[in-house]
Structure formats: structure tokens, C-alpha cells
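Subject: Sanity check before I submit

Could someone independently write out the C-alpha cells for this chain? I want to compare against mine line by line before I put it in a report. The sequence has 320 residues.
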Amino acid sequence: MSISQQNAVPQDTGLEGGAEHYRSIATILDSLDALVYVADMNTHEVLFLNRYGKEVWGDFKDKLCWQLLQSEQTGPCRFCSNPKLLDERGEPTGVWVWEMRNTVNGRWYECRDQAIRWWDGRLVRLEIATDITERKRLEQELQAALGRAREMASTDELTGLNNRRAFFELGEQSFRQARRSGRSMAVIMLDIDHFKRINDTHGHQVGDRALQALADTLRPLLREADILGRLGGEEFAVVLSDTGLGPATAIAERLRRVVEAMAVEQEPEPIRFTASFGVAAGSAADLNLDRLLGEADQALYKAKRAGRNRVEAVLPSPDA
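---
Independent answer below. Compare away.
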């Protein structure tokens, strides 16, 4: 293989047949299905580029590595591996393996970089970069699939809210933090009044739309730290961090009014419905999610018996 830069080929290495030996090695490197290049570690001048590299990045004559191998660069790459290839005495440390996405062709490469002495004694970076784009694509597809699986495992498919499992996991975590810090916690339980009547009268598809509309309405009315979940059927629950009974009851009342004003579009006229709410709160060191949910459920049952479309609150049991 011919090298376009005259000074890239050693004319006199002090070894018999040095130039011919160099050309033989270059021929071998040209046969590799991977990028192989050499760049001066001080000037960044490209001293050697194999055939694979030329076919992808073009002629390397009078080019610096960051000019040839990357796009829209005005100086050495911020991810340049040179500092990792030398020890504190400026001596080579061995091979550094890393991955990067090339900005010229958008493909992923696994790079094996090493500082070596060039034929004239200067330190150069030798890089062998293998295309791993297909492997990265498969890895990314796997990660996306795992992410979707985790989301499906924790998300209610109909409403997009936390499902029962995720609600209890996140709720327990929030309660543990509250116990450590001594903060108060509150729980709101709610469900749609006469939901069976909606399904029986208008069909389950309309009932599903009512559940979706309720979820979409509640979600933006709560804080980011609050935990909203669908526990099953038409039953929903909210964990309110750092919230006492009074503020939690006020929040429930605000939610009740918003639900009452909702309308689900349906011919010949929109469907309207209400919801009942139960609230419980506590601040003891032994705060317990299950206990407060039980208290809130009792309050919800009380709201149902009192005529529905209302908020009822009860204090935690004395041993809470």
C-alpha cells in the first residue's frame, strides 16, 4: 500500500529493510475490516490511515485527527483519549478501550487506543476502531424493551397512572422517608359514584373513557411528589407527602368540585358523574400506609352512606 505522506514511511529506521517491513505491516492493516490510524499525540497530525479509514473518511494528507475523523470540530475533541494513554511520567500506560458515536457517519465504534513510539521516536496514538453499530442497535432495542416492560409492570394500562403494585411500592418509600424526617402524611381514597350505572347504561367503553377522563383531570392538580394510583375498578388513591389532615381535606374538596364539573363527550349528550372522597392523615413515628389507607377507606364509606359526592375525613386510630 502506498502512503500519501512522504514522511509517514520511514526511510531509514536503522534496521535493515525497515521501509519494506513498514509497507508489509501497512498491507496487513489495510486488510482489516476496522479503522486503524496513527496520530501524533502533540500535534494531532494523522501519520497513517488504513484503507478502511480512507474509504470512510477520505484522504488524510495534511489533516489533523479531529479534522479528519469528526465533523464541525474547531479543536481537539473533548473526549480525546490522549490523557488516558500516558502516566504521570509521560510513558505509555497500555490499551484504553471505549465506545463512541462518530459525528461524520453517525455509526458506533469500539475503540482500542494505545500510546506507542513511532519509527522516529515520537509518541503517537494508535487507534483500532471496530464498527459496533448493529450491536448498539440491539442493546438499545433491548433497553427500550426492558423500559417498556418496567413501565407496563408499574402502569395501569387504561389510565396511565401507577397501578396498585407501583402505588404501594412508591407509597411505602414515601412513608419511610416521612418516618425518618418526622413529617406528616395524608392519604385520599376516592371512587366514582354509581359507576356500575354508567357501565350498564352507556356500555363499558364509555365507562373506560370516564376512568381515563378522571385520571387526566386529577393528575395535573397534584404535586409532582404526590403519588396517584388506580387501585382497581373505579377506585383511586393519593398519597400526599408532608401534608396534614386539614390541607389534605381541602385538596380532596378541590378535587371533588373539579370532578363534579367534568363531562365525558357522548351522544346524544355528555356524561357527567361525581366522586366520593375519604381522607386520613397522621404524623407519628410509626406512620403506616396500610393503616392510613384503612382510615381513608372508612371515611370514603362514610361519604357514600351520607349521600355521595362529598368528602369525609377521620383522624388516624389512637395507636397510629
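---
OP: Matches mine. For the report I'm noting this point. The radius of gyration is 34 Å.
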